[in-house]
Amino acid sequence: MLGLSTRRVLGCRHQFLVGALSIPRPAAAGLSRHHFPLFDTIRSRKYATNSSEAPVESKPRQSILSRLSPKSGNVSSFRKIAALAKPEKKPLLMAVGLLVVSSSVFMSVPMTVGKLIDFFSSTNPQFPLGLSIWQTSSILLVAFTLGAAANGGRAWLMRMAGQRIVARLRERTYAAALKQEVEFVEKGEGDVLSRLSVDTSIVGESVTQNLSDGLRAVVMSSVGLGAMFYLSPKLSTIRPRAYLLHTDLNLAMLMMVVVPPVSLGAVVYGRYLKKLANQTQEAVGEMTKVATESLSALRTVQAYNAYEQERLKFHDRIEHVLSLAKREATASSAFFAGTGWSGNVTFLCLLGYGGSLVSRGEISVGDLTSLLLYTIYVGNGLSMLSTFFSSIMRGIGSGQRIFDLLDRDPVIRSDTGVAISPDRRGLLKFENIQFEYPSRKGVEVLKNFELEVAVGESVAIVGKSGGGKSSIHSLLLRYYDPVQGKITFDGQDIREFSLESWRSVIGVVPQDPILFTGTIASNIAYGNTEATREQIEQAARDANCEFVWGMPQGFDTPIGRLSLSGGQRQRLAIARALLKKPALLALDEATSSLDATSEHRVNDAIDKILRNRNTTCLFVAHRLSTIARAERIVVLEDGRIVETGTYYQLVSRADSRFRALMAAQLNAAAGERITLDSVMKDEVIEEEEKPDPESEAKP
Ligand SMILES: Nc1ncnc2c1ncn2[C@@H]1O[C@H](COP(=O)(O)OP(=O)(O)OP(=O)(O)O)[C@@H](O)[C@H]1O
Predict the structure, then answer these.
(1) CA-CA distance, 550 to 373, in Å (whole number)?
(2) Which residues cross the membrane (predicted)?
(3) Which residues contact 64 (CB under 8 A, 6 or more apart)?
């Protein structure tokens, strides 16, 4: 086993070589890094300094002991990362086997070069075993070909194993993100995205590429050092043993000068790099969030000519990422310049000393060449090990971020509770609900909210904007749970039902329905993959989606997120909800005004639902024409129900809050004082008498 300090010292020698020779990157020369192990260090070092692709989470500084403790995050994260490689055991073991083959060939190169130099410089050249030059060349050629093939195989196996790990990790991370409560993901969307894309790649690289490089570094260092020791005794045949000791002592002394600062530097640098990489990853997450937000709202950005504003916002985040990259670049250049310099000096001393031995005829040129080449190899290997250390630290940082998400229990759990039968019907009851948003603690949105909705009943919730109407739907769908009180369905607390089965009995029509890239049919059948075309068409018919039949490709028409009108989107959303044959329908009426035709078609669709006595309907309504259709209206004010009754009961009371609310809305919309009675009468009558403009297209 090699002494750690010895390895580190030799590692510095290699640093110098790389710095001194200014070797170009293999990729730039169109060559694979696997053909040129010396280049590996350069590349991995560059990779290690590429902060823009690094991980998150600033953890408080830990002592080395605590870092090694089994309880520490690093160790457990490392174990989890290693566990990821388990399914890839077979290819990874094969890769290790190939690594042994390629390294054996590769490590024989210095010895061969030395022998060849001695052979060509001798007066009576003799190949071992009496082989001819052609036979020797053929053997070498076969060996190099085998080595190259093994190296290629190793690289392929490692890369593919890494990619499979990344793919699995991404799937698991994505699934974990989808199961979190909406607030967690909505607040940190960019962060989830960067965990999905960048962190998973870094972890994948850590368990495969970095591990492969690390193994290779161990082989290079240990075999190289072994070869150096093998070559050293030969020197004693030229000089007495005391001289050999003297040689070794000088070598050891040289090492001792360089080892302590370099070792310390490697540890400090590795830890600093991990901390910086974590910060960088957080900054990249912020940057992604800004970009995602503005790109998904491109229409608004363009409508308000806010390119500059958005560009500047993004610029600020980029600057932050850049400043972290600068700190990382400074640290890595200082570290590698320092180790490179000390390595160069050490190597030059060795060369000078060995050269003087050659000039005195005490060792052969071939042996010195082999010795120096092995020194380079060992240095290269040790340098790779220090890069491996910092890369692993980065992998651990990224792993922590991913495992934080994978291990996170959503506040609202999806794996508990009993399944509710889709045919179950019963009273829906909100009992003394108290609610505030977790992100806005202390601001009560609902206070002592009490409401009962009978089976098949339709209730419209009305109230001022921001009064908490949509929050009632959020609680019903269990995006959030109340702070106090409970919602029961058929006498059972809805928290006792499994989340998935509970949501499957609710049809939702949000204010601004979201369509997904796909066809009209796939959008109606969203979340309901088993629906037949007949069922989809029936749901579309019930939701007054006649426009679909008028489209050239009908239900197979491809649509994007916003490629339909507001009214069409709303009707498609109604069809989507109806397809579920829900026990409960939560409809949030669009606040944006639809044109008269669309409004009529939407209301007509809602009417059909309300007539269905099998579906309980709780809808948030704004327009009189919709509100009037409900069997009961509840008026919400300051998070409480202040009034309840049928439409006619409420409008017939001169001092009703409902009348005041509607009058205020109408006056605000019309910009003048008008009488509520006339408008309400007109609106409802108008609705009932309005001809059906799309009925001709109706199938
Ligand atoms: N995710 C959220 N986090 C924090 N506060 C929120 C969140 N969503 C809504 N709120 C706040 O809760 C209150 C009630 O909002 P809610 O959307 O339920 O009102 P609303 O009556 O449906 O309004 P509108 O009629 O305008 O749609 C508002 O003050 C709103 O700012």
Answers:
(1) 78
(2) 92-113, 133-150, 214-231, 251-269, 334-354, 374-393
(3) 267
